[in-house]
Amino acid sequence: MRPERYLLVWSLVLVLLLAGCAGKQPKDGPPRSGSIMPRDLPEDPVPRKEPKSRYGNGPFYEVHGNRYEVMGSSYGYQERGVASWYGNKFHGRQTSSHERYDMYALTAAHKALPLPTYVRVKNLRNHKSVIVRVNDRGPFVANRIIDLSYSAALRLDMIRQGTSLVEVTAISFDEPPPPVARAPTEVKPEETKAIVPEKTEAVIYVQVGAFGDAENASRRFALLRSSGVGNAFVLEDNSQSPALYRVRIGPIVDVVQYDSLVARLQNLGISETHLVTE
What we know:
By secondary structure, the protein is of the alpha+beta class. It is 19% helix and 26% strand. A 6-stranded mixed barrel has the order 3-7-4-6-5-8. A 4-stranded antiparallel β-sheet has the order 10-11-9-12, covered by helices on one side. A two-stranded antiparallel sheet has the order 1-2. β5 (117-123) and β6 form a beta hairpin.
C-alpha cells in the first residue's frame, strides 16, 4: 500500500473512532463501584442559617432557552410533585453554587429556592423523609420539582423507580412577612385532637379544583368524564362553612400515571393541580 493511502485509511479509522466516542454519552446512575448500604448513609444535616451563595442566586437565569426566577425567600415554601435523582454522571462536577456535587452527601437541586436552603423531602408513598441542603439548580425536566442526590434518594427508597411523588418543605431561617391582623378565635379544649402519623402506605389523589358552588364542581367533573378521565369524583368537604366541593382524580399509583394525567389535564386547559393524600 502506498504511504499516502496508508495515512488516509488510518485517518478515516481515527475519525470513526472519535465519532463513536463522541456519540456515547455517559449514563447517570449509582456508584460504579457498587451500591452503598443503608447503614452507610449519612444522617440528616443540621439546618442552620447560612449566607446566600455568591453564585446561582439570580434574580433570573436561563437554561435551554427558558427563563427561571429565583425566589427572594424560602419562608413558607411547600410544594408537592415529582422528585428525581442524579448520581455518578455528575459526581465531582461543579454545582450552580460552585460547590462540588457529592452524590454521597444529602443535597439537592431546585429551580427557584435560594442557594443554599435546607428542605425536608417526604416520600408521599411510604412516608419516609430526609433533610437535604439545596445547593444546585435543576431539574430542568417537565413536571419535576426537585433533583435529589443519590444518598438522599436511597433514604427515600426511590432508587429503583428513579422518581417519586414527594412533598418538599423549606426549613427557613428567613424573617416571616408582617402578620395580617385577624379577629381572635377561641379554641375549645375538646376540639383539639392529637394527630398520629399514619405508617401505612398513603393514598394519593390529584385535586383539580375546590369550589364553593356545587354546580361549578359538577361542570369540572363533567368535563373530566366527557374527556375519558374515569376515576374522577367530587368530594363534599363539610369541615368548612360554607362547604367546599373538591374535584379529585385517583388514586394515583405511580409517577408514570401522574405525568400522563398532568399532560392530559393541560390539554383540557387545566393547569392548576395539587397532590393530596389520605
